[in-house]
Design brief:
The chain has a domain of 48 residues. The chain is built from 2 helices and 3 strands. It has a 3-stranded mixed beta sheet with strand order 2-1-3, with helices on one face.
Length: 96
């Protein structure tokens, strides 16, 4: 069975949890057609609504921006510590 998440009509990635949709589809089709489950293959495509796809795209963009900001902040914290230690060291050496 192949299950893929579809956003804007484009498959995105395999779905790790299908909540039984694929299995239920196979069971239903086998019962409806009165055939063995191994006689066919079922492909389940989940298409999210357009508003949800837009929200997903916006959220992804904002998350990427936030990750970049966190990275910049971390570098600035490290530089702050380095400058502070350097200044304290110079004071210590000057006091000798």
């Amino acid at each position: 069975m192949i299950r893929r998440l579809v956003a804007d009509g484009v498959p995105q990635r395999p779905v790790t949890k299908d909540f039984g949709v694929g299995r239920s589809t196979v069971d239903l089709a086998a019962a409806w057609l009165d055939v063995d489950e191994s006689a066919f293959e079922v492909r389940v495509t989940i298409k999210i609504p357009e508003p949800a796809a837009r929200l997903f795209a916006h959220a992804k963009k904002y998350e990427e921006t936030a990750r970049e900001a966190v990275s910049v902040a971390a570098r600035q914290w490290r530089e702050t510590v380095r400058v502070t230690i350097d200044a304290l060291w110079r004071l210590f050496v000057a006091a000798l």
